[in-house]
Amino acid sequence: MVESVRDTKSQARVVAVAGSLLGIATILAPSFVIFRANRIVNGQPASAMAAFGAWGWVLLGMWVLAGALALTRLPYKWRGLAVGLLGGGAAVVATWRAGVTAAQYFAEKGDVARLSLGWAFWVMLLASYLVVFAASAWTPYGASRALVSYAPAVGVLVLLFGGSLASISIMREYAINAADFWAQLRLQLFYVLGATSLGFLIGMPLGLIAARRPATEPAIFTTLNILEVLPVLAFIGLLNPILTNLSEKSPALQAMGVRGVGWAPVLIVLTAYAMYPIARNSYTAMTTLDPAVLDAARGVGMKRFRRLFEVELPLAAPVILAGLRIALVQTTAGAIIAGLVGGGGLGTFVFLGAAQTATDLILLGTIPIVVMALFFDRGTRMVQMFLGRWGVAS
Amino acid sequence: MIEITGLTKRYGDFTAVDNVSLSIPDGQFTVLLGPSGSGKTTVLRMLNRMVTPTSGEVRINGKDTAAEKPEQLRRSMGYVIQNTGLFPNMTVRRNVATVPRLLGWDRARTRARVDEMLSIVGLDPDTYAEKLPSQLSGGEAQRVGVARALAADPPILLMDEPFGAVDPITRDRLQLEMKRLQRQLKKTVVFVTHDIDEATLLSDKIALLRGGVLQQYAAPEELWKQPANEFVRDFFGESFGLRIMVRHGLSEITLEPVGEGIDGLPRVGIEATLKEALAELIDKRAERIVVVDGGREVGTVSFTTLMCALGQEDRS
User: Is residue A394 part of a domain?
Assistant: First the structure.
């Protein structure tokens, strides 16, 4: 136990140093920001050193210092705090300076000019994530770990909602599409939560049935497997005539907006995809329960439903929840497809941006999806840790 | 009173239990003993209908158990298994309270009963009640298992190799405590094991099974003196007499008078078992040892006394 903790902490040093080196490289790399005369032309890339002036040196200093401190033998708590805040802080400073530079450029060149974020910027965010991740392993649970983990995100959010980033091209895209953006975000959430809930409501019982009636297991999982591997567009294509037909025959469905394209096939396809990980994990959870515990539950005179709800499901919950997490994250990304078949959602921006070769519009659709996926992942992990507190599953 | 008549269990062509009949009076500690595959666990599990008999019947106080709902039946019998089967998601308190909850006892009564049961099995309620099973040692977990089985005060306790998975020292202690507990609570216990020492120590009567067939159902002394067949004799082996000596105390046997020349002889308390007395004779290389009861010399014991006490001469 102690050995493994020490191990994690020394491995974290490798990650922190590697992340810092990556950070240094991105500050020196050529395409940190891109100056564009308008939104579609190829712009002029610039490194952070060139674009941010003295602040470029500050960023470079932060990364060098983070890497150097990671190599010291400072006590873990202080090392974690210092390295984590430097690495995370670099992300906040870089974002802030990009916003300031964009505002200046915008003021100089007028309405159609854009400052985009280049690949080096995004890679630097990855470097920050790595360093923060490593540093959080050094800090003890509680205030210092929370500070290291969440301060950078809070910093970026403050800049975002404080308006400091308003001139960056993605935010300009947002400003143009603001009303639509929130509508599509809501639609995206509808797809993700709707499909995952339906997938859970259908997939979990299927997993339970397969576990308790072994004869049904091949039929259930063969079906789910086939659904899972059907390519998404082929799947929607197959549903198209069926749904078109149904909606022509039923005015009620028509009134709900069920058609061969639009939200209905998307929700069905995403639900089908979400079912598999949930059913599979439910099945695994229920078939790997301790036989002694099941025997005891029967032996003390618990009836079937009480056994299920008081013993079996609570013990299986962490593993079932892991399946739910996979389904959530998978659906969050998968729902982009709605943008292609008239179902809306954040995919609308992604595909529109791709059609117009407007990278910033693609990012406007992608970034919220990434944030959403991380949020769902974190959230379900926390619930899972709480449920697993009796040490049944990690 | 548990009356088992013609109990049989077949799985396809395989007969796990073959026409077993036993009569178990109230308060008797009965051990189902046999090698693995002898059907002893299946017999036990047919008592609370965890396994449905193919034929034959089990009557408890004259009532046919086949007519009862299995859940009702199980709630009237405590059930302890080898790997404790404690619910890992529930505290010790909630585990022990399982059957009282199923029976709809009110909270105060359940709570008081849980505290009482934990004390009876030797666990301090204040220390243990709120722990989770993962925080217990093997021996502690098994005690909680016994407490859970006894919580609703069932007249019958079924135990399936309950001490099979604990270390030998804990096991010895749990066995002695089990014996004390049964004397104190006067439960009818049916206990499955393959361990001859355990069976000999704990049982009032042993039912020895082989291949699903009952070989002999008798007290260990009788199994020793009048084994029903070669299998019974071989199963208990040459040292069975020695094993039986743990069952009897010096207080049960006729001692030789104290007489002369006892100075310098080793001494042993009256509460010792015959086996302990024998060990003392061997250890001290003595002809005789003096038995003392609260400081008073009440008699002496020699090899011959012990032999006579066991009725060696009766053995055919």
Answer: no
